Amino acid sequence: MSAVLSSPLKLPHAAETLVLANGERMSRREFHRLYERSPESVRAELIGGVVHMPSPLRRQHGTFHVFWSMLFGFYMMQTRGVEAGDNASLLLGDESEPQPDLYLRVLPEFGGQSSTTDDDYVAGAPELIVEIALSSRSVDLFAKRADYHRYGVREYFVFVPREETLFWFDLTKNEERPHPSDGVIRSGEFPGLWLNVAAIVKQDHATALATLQQGLATDDHRQFVERLASRRT
Prior knowledge:
By secondary structure, the chain is of the alpha+beta class. The chain has helices at residues 28-37, 59-77, 137-151, 197-201, 205-216, 219-231; strands at 45-47, 50-52, 82-86, 90-91, 102-106, 115-116, 122-123, 128-132, 155-160, 165-170, 175-176, 184-186, 194-196.
């Protein structure tokens, strides 16, 4: 005699079984839908139409992340109209939704090239992006660089702690820029953003901040702030 079920067996809806998988190809719209439904512990990016799920982050990545956040946060505080972002998803294009370590952008109301969606995402490319590359070195230097160039990021830094190297790219020309002889990079997109490479490598907070303050005291930075204010809508 067959058993009688007290209630019918409920099969999951097909959409409920879908999860993000490393290496899978999909559109940004489908990726975004699945990512929003994923647990908060899941971190994923769509780069060139391919899902990337980064490895867990080690201590070294975390400490350098705080270092860069300090510099960008200080620059933002002194530069009205500029926003610094940390680990926020960017809606770049049909095949790209990265989650960069840090970005700087000019806010849209001050003439920036990106916008803010009604559900609080950045749509379009920030002017500047930084990636801290440990296990992600090849992705950051090639696949992500290609996407960032394609969708309009203007300036791009890839910091590789193990090599004590900071790669600096002008993505408007899609070329790597050499370091100045004094070891201080002066951002082309954000006047006054002076980055002391040796101090960053050594995590010398005091020297890095002092160099940044020198940049913020320049006429270039003052004029940039005035230009931003004149563009405000």
